[in-house]
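Exam revision sheet. Question 4 asks you to relate a sequence to its structure. Input first:
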Amino acid sequence: MDDIDPQLLRVLRAVADGGSITRAAAALGSSQPAVSQLLARAERRLGHTLVLRSGQEGRGGRGATLTDAGRVLADHALHVQAALTAAREDLDAVGGLTRGRVRLAGFPSASSALVPAVLARLAATAPGVTTSYVEVEPPEALDLLRSGEVDVALTFTYVGDEVGSAPDPGLVTRALGRDPLALVTPSGGSGGGRTLDSGAVGTGGLGAGALGSGAVDSAVDLASHRGARWIGGCPRCRGHLLASCATAGFTPDIVLETDNAAAVVGLVAAGLGVALLPRLALATTVIPAEVRVDPVDDDLARRVEVVIARGAERVPSVRAALQAVRSAAHLLDGPLPG
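Answer key, structure tokens:
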């Protein structure tokens, strides 16, 4: 319809994200009166109320929420922006200009393993594409996608994360593979350091070279460490640890918290606790002889995923990034079923 313009969709998306017209205007680099006038004109043209204003005046202005009609339009904002970007890049390509931009977000343990492979692949296959990267946990990465601040997000989920949550219609999630977890405990040994065998990533077992003295490839029962002091990670990982231990019949005594894998290994080496770590984090972390690494039940593995805005695959630079991400999926433990 010619009475629905892209700017209106961007404004509605900004109101949904900011919760007020004042914050939406600030995010768009506009003024509050200009945004209010745009909304009023759109409501008259369309014959629908799009925004409900409520609450007290505050630092962010009066609160504002979208009506059902407003939400319907806001859900199209990212898709329309992706289409406009795709049109711009396609036009540049017709003119012989190869260019583009991809902004990538990823979680910490992807930064040292997956992300370098993705960016290297992009540099080799799409040298005209400018890339950037920001390291954030999955919830923040999805927020950046929704606000249009990044184009591609590497995220992870655990079994059960999806319970009680509705899928975001504006985002498309694609599975990349599985990232098994391992139990990291003091081994009582001494000597030089080592890292996980390169063959340990993308294979069924952690590999003998990755395990502590006397370790075997069979999964370790978490309940055998019910009396240990535990080291927790990011909020999502901590929640997964609590749920996994609850399934094993106990509540872990979490006394230390850090999402820095090297710090976790150092704390374990000092005999200060035990921890669950993903293989991606262990693959690039030096494992001293004082530390033992054992596989745990494969059901505890996390799923690694790539997320984009719906329709963004039409953008040539985003499409190139997705191809680069898929090329790095071999670093995970095989594709997910289905």
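Marking note for examiners. Residues 77-94 form the longest helix (18 residues).
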